[in-house]
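Severity: low
Component: inverse-folding endpoint
Summary: output formatting inconsistent between runs
Steps to reproduce: submit the following structure tokens with default settings.
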């Protein structure tokens, strides 16, 4: 076989390893990279627009902030509701909830899944804090504000951490509802509700621009997608059955396991 033929065979061999369904590890690694790239593209674009102070984005942010602020000043009960929500679903309480889940997973005999939860929450939180410093965007400066917050604005830490926590809890508990359509819908609805309303509460209180919240949502989805894809890739590489995270969670066997000391 000549050199050109050998090169062609090697090229086809690399492609087959990346895209061949029978080689699930190579396929999943490729899909992980592609998925992470596709999710991070809109976040990167949004961050560049914020850094460049793109006038249309600034006008849209100001218009939405003004509308929410006008409504908030005229409806104190709305402000009270949003204030309670933003505190209950803030980064602190959600991190405490994640720690509780980590302890529960360890006791249930799923330490690797517990590590995945920790890595996802910590990596996302640190990335968000770093980006706030790098972008250095100021928060809205409104007349007669209904709430105040410290620190930089982009991306929204509340929106980011709500997305991380909701994604983690969703993918951990999906195995317990995979045979019940209604329960699965309820779990998805709860995850979306926490994510969306927490982000909107920051706009409603006038402490974040809309693009801050959208940035937090997109970054949170990117982090959860990347770490869950890495976890499912590890499962395939270690000989475990393939999992479909959005239908049955990142570790479907979790629902069949028993806590330590429990009876099988």
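Observed output (run 2 of 3):
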């Amino acid at each position: 076989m000549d050199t050109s033929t050998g090169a062609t065979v090697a090229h086809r061999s690399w492609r087959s390893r990346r895209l061949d369904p029978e080689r699930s590890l190579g396929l999943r690694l490729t899909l992980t990279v592609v998925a992470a790239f596709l999710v991070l593209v809109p976040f990167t674009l949004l961050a560049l627009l914020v850094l460049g102070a793109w006038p249309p984005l600034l006008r849209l942010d100001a218009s939405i902030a003004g509308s929410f602020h006008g409504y908030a000043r005229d409806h104190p009960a709305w402000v009270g509701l949003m204030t309670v929500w933003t505190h209950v679903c803030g980064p602190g309480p959600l991190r405490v909830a994640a720690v509780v889940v980590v302890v529960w997973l360890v006791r249930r005999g799923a330490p690797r899944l517990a590590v995945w939860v920790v890595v996802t929450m910590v990596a996302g939180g640190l990335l968000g804090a770093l980006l706030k410093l790098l972008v250095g965007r100021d928060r809205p400066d409104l007349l007669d504000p209904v709430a105040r917050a410290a620190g930089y604005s982009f991306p929204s830490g509340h929106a980011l951490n709500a997305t991380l926590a909701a994604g983690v809890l969703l993918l951990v508990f999906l195995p317990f509802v995979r045979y019940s359509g209604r329960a699965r819908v309820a779990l998805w609805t709860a995850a979306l509700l926490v994510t969306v309303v927490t982000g909107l509460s920051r706009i409603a209180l006038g402490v974040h621009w809309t693009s801050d919240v959208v940035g937090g949502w997109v970054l949170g989805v990117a982090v959860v997608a990347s770490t869950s894809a890495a976890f499912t890739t590890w499962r395939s590489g270690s000989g475990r059955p393939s999992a479909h995270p959005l239908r049955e969670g990142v570790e479907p066997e979790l629902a069949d396991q028993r806590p330590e000391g429990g009876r099988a």
